[in-house]
Each structure stands twice: as structure tokens, then as C-alpha cells.
Amino acid sequence: MTKEIEIISEGLNYTAGNLGVLDQLMEYEVINPATKKGLPGKVFLGEVLKMTGLEVSLQIFPPGMGMPFTHKHRQNEEFYIILKGHGEFTIDNTVVPLCEGTVIRIAPNGARIWHNTGNEPMIVLCVQSAAGSLQQATTKDGILC
Ligand code: ZN
């Protein structure tokens, strides 16, 4: 049974949760509804935090492990940041080395797969939202209260 994100506080305009210690992300698992196969070490945050404009996931890969399949998206652009560890990202047959702090944007049609090449767990955070949907951000969208 997969671990559940603990909701620690919720109000009219927010939902706050706690994933636990990131090194223990292997306690989570996502089951692909189409293939019924599990992705251990992966957790999506969007539904539990009631996000409406983006999806966020975290995933941990033990040494030698990686995504079991290459994938693209129908409409979503993805942003990845490597939070810990070392690995390689392959995008359309180009290999990009990964280390803590590597940030990557991938357009929906980019064929992507990645794996851990290091001797410690690799932790990856992914944000996805509809490509072309951002109308404003940072100081153009922020309002001082
Ligand atoms: Zn994806």
C-alpha cells in the first residue's frame, strides 16, 4: 500500500501537506491506470493539494534505476529540477547529464526518459502545465497586500 500525503493545514485559499523525508519517497507509488503497472518512489501533488493549473510530482530513483518507459505529452510542457543525485536525461536522442540543480524544460512533443547514474538516490521534481497557457507571472501577476 502506498503512503498518503499528510494534509497539515487547509483554508479557504490554501492546502498545505507534508510528504515526509524526501529520502523516503520510495514509500510512495503511482499506479498507471492504463497499464496497471506501478512506479515506486513517485508521488503526484496536484490532486491532494487541489491544484487547478499545474501538476507537480516528486520521484526518487535508487542507484541504477530510471523511468521504465519513454514518454511524450499531448499538451503539457514539463519542467524538471534535480534535487539530489546524478543521472542522465535523454530527450529526442540527446543525452543531458544531470546533477543537483540541473533544470530542464521539455516541450510536449519531446520524447523523454531518464535514469540515475550515481551511487546515491536521485530525486527529481517535475512541474507540468499546458504549453502556452501562461499569460503572466512574477511581478506582472503578483499583487502587494
Ligand atoms: Zn511527463
Q: Can you walk me through this structure?
A:
The chain is mainly β and 145 residues long. The protein is built from no helices and 12 strands. It has strands at 6-11, 14-18, 29-31, 38-40, 42-44, 55-61, 76-84, 87-91, 94-98, 103-106, 112-116, 122-130. The chain has a 5-stranded antiparallel β-sheet, with no helix packed on it. Strand 3 (29-31) and strand 4 (38-40) form a beta hairpin. It is globular and about 45 Å long. It starts with 5 loop residues before the first strand and ends in a 15-residue tail after the last strand. 16% of the residues are buried. The chain binds zinc ion.
Which bin fits the share of residues in helices? under 10%
Average pLDDT reading: 96
The unreliable regions are none
For the record, give the distance between the C-alpha atoms at the N and C termini, rounded to a whole number: 43 Å
Quaternary state of this entry equals: single chain
Beta content: 35-45%
Label this structure with key terms.
single chain; 0% helix; mainly beta; binds zinc ion; five-stranded antiparallel beta sheet; 44% strand
Summarize the model shown:
With 145 residues, this protein is mainly beta.
Q: Which helices and strands appear, and what pairs or packs with what?
A:
Blueprint: E1 6-11, E2 14-18, E3 29-31, E4 38-40, E5 42-44, E6 55-61, E7 76-84, E8 87-91, E9 94-98, E10 103-106, E11 112-116, E12 122-130
Antiparallel strand pairs: 1-2, 3-4, 5-6, 6-12, 7-10, 7-12, 8-9, 8-11
